[in-house]
Amino acid sequence: MYSAALRCIAGCDVSLPLSATVYRCPSCGDLLEVVHDLAPLTERSADEWKQLFEQRFMSTVWPYGSGVWGKKEWVAPHVDDANVVSMFEGGTNLLWAERYGKQLGLSDLWIKQCGNSHTGSFKDLGMTVLVSTVKQMIADGTEVPAIACASTGDTSAALAAYAAAAGIQSVVILPRGKISAAQLVQPLSNGAVVLAIDADFDGCMRLVTRLSAEANVYLANSMNSLRLEGQKTVAIEIVQQFDWQVPDWIVIPGGNLGNVSAMGAGLDMMLNLGLIDKRPRICVAQAERANPLYRSYQSDFAEFEPIKAQSTLASAIQIGNPVSYRKAVRALRNFDGVVEQASEAELADAAARADRTGMFCCPHTGVALAAAEKLVAKHTIKPQDRVVIVSTANGLKFSDFKSSYHAGTLPGVESPRHANRPIELADDYDAVRDAVLRAVDRRASS
Which residues lie closer than 8 Å to 131 by C-beta, 6 or more apart? Predict the structure, then answer.
């Protein structure tokens, strides 16, 4: 009843099944996207879809309790329930950041904590769809020897975990020495073939693209449109968690730029099927040292030049030639979007400032927080606006980033504004009491 196909984003007359091992248009070479047949979906009213999604949300009925598979008809109708590979992804907390918001002059600031997922990042949302599709392909008789990705950490963790659950070999190509130990150990633990390459992400991406073309391995990076189908459920889930009300702003960290196009796709699908009646504005936040989209935005996207991304604390978005650039620009134009950037000090201080109000933010979320702070200071975001910042990964993956910030040893951050160092004392009660009272007095006077 429900169906979808791969179509060219440039408008070529191409229609391919979702099981096709094709990642670019065979006619023009541009990216593909998943396009759903909306006619069968309109047979349910908007209220009926809302009721169905609410009924399934976080339930125990396989596989619909997942935040992704609860929207199965909108995401991957081609996968049989028996071939779904799910770790109960999605359903993550939409945190009211009350204290942090008040510091910025906002009363309605929320953090979508996508890092509270099985492998600790939003990449789970796309990987469940991709690996389930491969499992369906194998069940239908297609030979797939392995699934491979280039990664700066989170994608590799998600691929390795879901492939392991499916019993499919995963291959991960990483830039050597440029991801955290916590991120590296995830694919190793899940049995992936891990290749640490003397290259940046863009170099790893060139290798895995050639590998997929010549060695028949299935490509798991975001140029594969199935990834974005899972990731678009973040948009649907945010609106659902607001009782189907649309926020004024959504702020998203951007590297390879699949996340913003996925966000736009989810919002547009709700708009087309009548579940919402307006669009939010979108901000894509980039690290200053890896900011090709921001540079293009300065000319209203009239030109785009790939760059050699510099080393940044936000390592997962250290990408100079984003695959989904054109999709991202389309989404930004449709959603009256803006692009902002953050320096190393700005992203680190913003993450630490938010942590002081109870969060524990990864550096990539720090980029989005810093961008939001700048937009508030410029009065682009108004005090009364409802703002959602997408937190892409769990801060526990970046303990070195956290400890180095408070020790004052982070590269590019000379004077951390919110550093908090342990006070070393002798085993002496008076010294302990005095230290505690001084700290209490400082807090009271601040």
Answer: 85, 147, 159, 162, 163, 165, 166, 168
Q: Pick from 328, 273, 393: which is nearest to 33 by CA? A: 328
- The total of other beta-carbon atoms located within 10 Å of residue 321's CB is 18
Beta strands in 24-150 (DSSP E): 32-36, 94-96, 109-113, 147-150
Paired tokens of 354: 């938010």
Going by their DSSP bridges, the two strands 218-219 and 147-150 should be labelled as parallel
Does the CA dihedral 34-2-149-342 come out positive or negative? Answer: positive
Spatial separation of the C-alpha atoms in residues 372 and 97, rounded to whole Å: 13
From 77, 100, 66, select the one nearest 4 (Cα to Cα). 77
Please answer whether residues 270 and 237 qualify as being in contact, where contact means their C-beta atoms are separated by less than 8 angstroms.
no
Amino acid at 58: M
Cα 382 from Cα 379, distance rounded (Å)? 6
Cα gap 194→230, rounded to integer Å: 24
The two structure tokens encoding residue 444: 């009271």
- Mean pLDDT, to the nearest integer, of 228-232? 96
The one-letter amino acid code at 42 reads T
- What average pLDDT does the segment 190-199 reach? 94
The number of angstroms, rounded, from the C-alpha of 106 to the middle of its chain's C-alpha atoms is 24
**Residues recorded for the chain:** 446
Structure tokens at 306: 């790939």
- First-to-last alpha carbon distance for the chain, in angstroms, is 62
Coil, helix or strand at residue 283: strand
- pTM (2 d.p.): 0.94
Helix (H), strand (E) counts: the chain: 17, 12
Q: What are phi and psi of 329, to 5 degrees?
A: -60, -40
Going by C-alpha positions, the residue among 15, 59, 53, 13 that lies closest to residue 34 is 15
pLDDT of 327 strictly over 70 = yes
- Give the dihedral sign, CA 112/117/121/124: negative
Identify the pLDDT of residue 235.
98
Closest CA to 387 of 369, 364, 365, 362: 369
Tokens of 393: 């990964």
Estimate to the nearest angstrom the gap between the alpha carbon of 233 and the chain centroid.
11
387-391 vs 109-113, strand pairing mode:
parallel
CA 265, CA 344: separation in Å to the nearest integer?
Answer: 30
Q: Tokens 């991957």 belong to which residue?
A: 76
Which pair of structure tokens corresponds to residue 206?
A: 């060139």
**Which residues fall within 8 angstroms of residue 170, CB to CB, at 6 or more apart?**
146, 147, 148, 149, 159, 160, 163, 164, 187, 190, 191, 192, 193, 220
Model confidence at 446: pLDDT above 80: no
Kind of pairing between the strands at 170-175 and 338-342:
unpaired
- Residue type present at position 62: W
